[in-house]
Amino acid sequence: MISLGIIGTNWITEQFVKATDETKSFSLTHVYSRTEAKAKSFIKDLDKKDITISTDLDEFLSMNFDTVYIASPNALHFSQAKKALENGKNVIVEKPSTSTIAEFTILEKLARENHVYLFEAARHIHEPIFKKIAEVVEKHRDELSGATFSYMKYSSRYDAYLAGKNPNIFTTKFSGGALYDLGVYTIYDAVVLFGQPKKVDYDAEFLASGVDGSGSLTLSYPKFDVNIIVGKTKNSYMSSEIYFGRDTLLLDNGGDIRHLDWADDNKNVTDIPTTKSENPMDSEAVEFARIMNENDTETYDKLLKYAQIVNRTLEQARISAGLVFEADKEK
């Protein structure tokens, strides 16, 4: 089993570790945290034993384990992933892996030079339900005429922001906002299903902190457009849709997809059977481990290309909206 170190002791790292346990894909051996107390609490909650703790990042990355999973604030992804790759670690980094396409290009180059893997953890594209969507799209590709993806969810940190606090997810310092959180899922939807867009336009609703609380994005393709609605300051229960002329594939949303329907011209709606794991990170854990164990370079290169296009599209969207991160000033 592949030995695993993690950066970040939050709910998403806990969910990923549970996924690796359930699927027996990785084995947690090392934990990095800024404080030893947090690391110990995290390990206790997972009922783990014999886990090595470090509060020094350089020391942590010099330790003997194969792969590091990074789930820190967005703006820290690049520097931490860069150090990990330089230390010969395989890297699984939460989406978005970087704040700029320049940063992503550096990480991609380092991974190849050091003969290690770099994965962006866009977990939903590995799930059986997304693969079913891809099958339907491929079957009806000749009729494909556009899509609308919606993913709006009131953030658990927004009340703190409104109260005058400064949560990382709502600051330009940490590359926060709706597009770089929930919007990543919907851009992955478009890129994996339809390829690289020809043009990107983002109309953002800005918060006083400088990040986008919500917004609407248009990805233009040669024969159709994809319209995307994202937000962290309000809830939406709108379905997402992929259009095939008279018929429509319905997704319950554009990110955490749980149900599919097919609607025809006569308004007949048919359920499309599929499966969904209780832990949405199971599928990506299995796939990343499989690629490494089998040295499946074909699939790996495809995933890396998706990540490259997504990160480029994110930056193009930001530029079109005038959304500036502190990471941009470090170029």
TrEMBL record:
Transmembrane segments: none annotated. It holds the Pfam family GFO_IDH_MocA. It comes from the Bacteria. GO terms for molecular function: nucleotide binding. Gene3D superfamilies: Dihydrodipicolinate Reductase, domain 2 (3.30.360.10), NAD(P)-binding Rossmann-like Domain (3.40.50.720). Residues 157-223 form the GFO/IDH/MocA-like oxidoreductase domain. Residues 3-119 form the Gfo/Idh/MocA-like oxidoreductase N-terminal domain. This is Oxidoreductase.
